[in-house]
# Entry
Amino acid sequence: GAVVSQHPSWVICKSGTSVKIECRSLDFQATTMFWYRQFPKQSLMLMATSNEGSKATYEQGVEKDKFLINHASLTLSTLTVTSAHPEDSSFYICSARVRDLAKNIQYFGAGTRLSVL
Amino acid sequence: QQPVQSPQAVILREGEDAVINCSSSKALYSVHWYRQKHGEAPVFLMILLKGGEQKGHEKISASFNEKKQQSSLYLTASQLSYSGTYFCGTEASGGSYIPTFGRGTSLIVHP
# Structure
């Protein structure tokens, strides 16, 4: 399967700082990437769809100014959590979509655990 | 709308079988199945398209009943490595083709 690299895997930061998370497709081009948030023992909640060369599409209830997404190239999308607060602590996972005939398969990065003190 | 998975949790001994179900209130285009181990990313298992597909992946197989808007994941002769949380993701017909994930089914396989 396709490989998606996510970095860093764990971040601990002070309240009020900004954190950038990178998501790279290593062996394929991804025009569309997705950012998810996952709370302990919960499902994957889609935050936004990242489109290469255009603005991200955010899900209802997700603050655009809080979670900045940039998809500058066909292999890189970044999520910046601005002015992070303890309630932003969570597991953030990116994925890239690969279209194989009529199938849209998502390959996930390893996730980033964010802890805001 | 989030698909409903059942059961919430399953505990098995090695070699036993399990079935995990996923149902949706919407007409579906496809169903995805993933397995996630604690603290790791979900790993793609398989995708089934409408048309009543049934697929196999080693001793893990799945079926998709389009009319019932349901999919089932079958784990036979379970191994310790099968432990994890299984998520189904459903793509609605005529939608954006972005899967919505269920709450997951936790599977624990004991020696």
